[in-house]
Write a structure and sequence with these properties.
CATH superfamily of the largest domain in chain A: P-loop containing nucleotide triphosphate hydrolases
Strand content of chain B: under 5%
Largest interface: A-B, 34 and 30 residues
CATH architecture of the largest domain in chain A: 3-Layer(aba) Sandwich
Strand order of the largest sheet of chain A: 5-6-7-3-8-9
Low-confidence stretches of chain B: none
Largest sheet of chain B: none
Mean pLDDT of chain A: 88
Radius of gyration of chain A: 24 Å
Helix content of chain A: 25-40%
Number of strands of chain A: 13
Low-confidence stretches of chain A: none
Helix content of chain B: over 70%
Bound molecules: adenosine-5'-diphosphate, magnesium ion
Oligomer: heterodimer
Number of helices of chain A: 11
Order of helices and strands of chain B: HHHHHHHHHHHH
Number of strands of chain B: 0
Radius of gyration of chain B: 19 Å
Chain lengths: 296, 246
């Protein structure tokens, strides 16, 4: 559906995207993840024909964006930077977009309703909050009732209710068979709705996998709490069990099983206050893959 | 057609900029008209006698209207640079990813709206002149032709402004470039008499508007301007296609 092939983009000295390849499956929600500066926005803008790649290419339905007929009816997009004339009302902005794309005017009020902006539609965009601007972008993306949505950090500026609302809306849109590519640097937003994730770091692909598989694949380790943590750690290390982090009374073990650790502790007369398998979250997987320090 | 209509809609729905431009234009034309009439009537010919200055009054008044070309130029620049400035160019290119079409359609819109800017200037001039020296004025076929040339000139200048704006991509930069050309570059180049007929403003004022000694015919003027329009247009398209919208 969306295909990125050996994409590279260099801005003067910055290598923003580095030989990146991935495919977005039709009818699924794909999360496009990476820390700030990973090259997500650049990649999405190349897909939309706004930025010229240095090499490689990105296609939608096997065509370059500029080859698409009536692109707004095929691909809807929400981009990071707001792009409204502040003097126009939200409704006028949509009228301009609809007129240029040959979309009937009646659709404007429909999409304003979809993003819950009907009441504020005639206010000047200059006075909109970030969240309202984000909703207006989404309204513009939905104008052409497209089968593909490309969304760059659409949750930015939304309050928790707004994020909840967005999640429900995206689920509903995906349930209608749409293909959605949605970027974020904040994991929890995406974890719950993405069928698949593509993780990038420093412009390179780190991982592409179904969300569930990725979370399962990366073990969160075993938490062991003990008043004699230091002694236990030495014993574990002698038994070649890898300890990944150690604090005053807490050890996190990367491999091994709870049975083995429990038995070793008992054999050495060490009291345990806690022995549990950490449930891995995508957040941890993400931080691990992109080489950040874990938060605990 | 729908793209052209939406360009006009964009201009209409950003009223503050357009109204500001219009007010500035009317002020300049009012001052120009007033000073033209003032200097013509104070030259002291006895009533009933038509002095040469007065016989040219109509022509000079139309000259005052042609200061609206300046505003057609600025509007032409704005039609594309305000899109870069406010980021709406993103949406424009998402709708029409073939950027040469965007440049072409905007050129057309800038030409039409540039010419339209002449209408209020012309009306204002006629009203002021009618009130002040209405009894002495006679607008005939020759004056009508001159007015037609002002419309044509404004359309050309609007299109040129659009091309400069598209090439540079920045409001201030484009306007400064246009002024630098008018104030320094072309006057400096005019020192060489042999290339003067081929310079754009000379072609515009002498050829298209028929000012000065009218040493350049309308046809020659238009031909010269067409070459500049084509060259600048090509440059604008190349630069616009290369530009990354980030
Ligand atoms: N127009 C530009 N000029 C120069 N560098 C840029 C430009 N746009 C992005 N970059 C750089 O490219 C890298 C990737 O940026 P971006 O694609 O915005 O990342 P993300 O969206 O993942 O945060 C960053 O280092 C950024 O500074
Ligand atoms: Mg980004």
């Amino acid at each position: 559906m969306i295909e990125v092939e050996h994409l590279t983009k260099r801005f003067r000295k910055t290598l923003a995207v580095d030989d990146l390849s991935f495919k977005v499956r039709e009818g699924a929600i794909t999360g496009f993840l990476g820390p700030n500066g990973a090259g997500k926005t650049t990649t999405l803008r190349i897909i939309l024909g706004l930025v010229r790649p240095s090499s490689g290419r990105a296609t939608v339905k096997a065509q370059l964006y500029r080859q698409l007929r009536d692109p707004l009816r095929q691909v809807g997009s929400v981009l990071e930077a707001s792009s409204f004339h502040p003097g126009r009302s939200g409704r006028d902005h949509l009228h301009v977009v609809a007129a240029s794309a040959g979309i009937e005017r009646s659709r404007v009020d429909e999409v304003l309703g979809l993003v819950q902006l009907t009441k504020d539609g005639s206010r000047r965009v200059g006075g909109y909050s970030l969240g309202m601007q984000q909703r207006l972008s989404l309204a513009a993306a939905l104008l052409g009732d497209p089968g593909v949505l490309v969304l760059d950090e659409p949750a930015n500026g939304l309050d928790p209710q707004g994020i909840h609302w967005l999640r429900d809306l995206l689920r509903a849109l995906a349930a209608e068979g749409r293909t959605i590519l949605i970027s974020s640097h904040v994991l929890p937003e995406i974890e719950q709705i993405a069928d698949e994730v593509v993780i990038v770091h420093r412009g390179k692909l780190v991982e592409q996998a179904p969300t569930a598989e990725l979370a399962a694949r990366i073990s969160g380790g075993i938490r062991v709490r003990s008043p004699e943590a230091d002694r236990l750690r030495e014993i574990l290390e002698q038994a070649r069990v890898k300890v990944t982090s150690a604090q005053a009374d807490l050890i996190v073990v990367g491999d091994g099983s709870t049975e083995r650790i429990g038995e070793l502790a008992a054999a050495n007369g060490i009291v345990l206050h806690e022995l549990a398998v950490e449930k891995a979250t995508l957040e941890e997987a993400f931080l691990e893959l992109t080489g950040h320090e874990t938060t605990r | 057609m729908r793209l052209f209509a939406s360009e006009l809609l964009k201009i209409r729905t950003a009223p503050r900029t357009v109204i500001g431009l219009l007010l500035a234009e009317l002020a300049v034309v009012a001052v120009g008209t007033a000073s033209t009439i003032d200097s013509a009537t104070s030259s002291g010919a006895p009533p009933g006698f038509e002095s040469p200055a007065e016989r040219n009054l109509e022509r000079d008044l139309i000259g005052a209207v042609s200061s609206s070309l300046l505003f057609a130029l600025i509007l032409g620049v704005l039609v594309i640079t305000w899109e870069y400035r406010h980021g709406t160019i993103t949406q424009t290119f998402l709708v029409t990813p073939v950027r040469e079409r965007v440049v072409g359609i905007k050129m057309l819109a800038a030409a039409v709206v540039g010419a339209a800017l002449v209408v209020p200037a012309l009306i204002l001039m006629l009203v002021i002149a009618e009130i002040w020296v209405g009894d002495k004025l006679q607008f005939g076929g020759h004056e009508l032709a001159l007015m037609g040339r002002v419309f044509l000139g404004a359309a050309i200048v609007g299109a040129l402004g659009l091309e400069i704006g598209a090439g540079i991509g920045r409001q201030l930069g484009a306007i400064l470039l246009a002024f630098a050309w008018a104030a320094f570059v072309e006057p400096a180049l005019s020192i060489w008499g042999s290339i003067q007929p081929y310079l754009p403003l000379h072609a515009l004022f002498q050829g298209v508007l028929g000012n000065g000694d009218a040493s350049l015919s309308l046809g020659r003027g238009l031909l010269t301007i067409a070459v500049y329009l084509a060259a600048l247009g090509t440059t604008a398209v190349v630069l616009t296609r290369r530009r990354d919208i980030t």
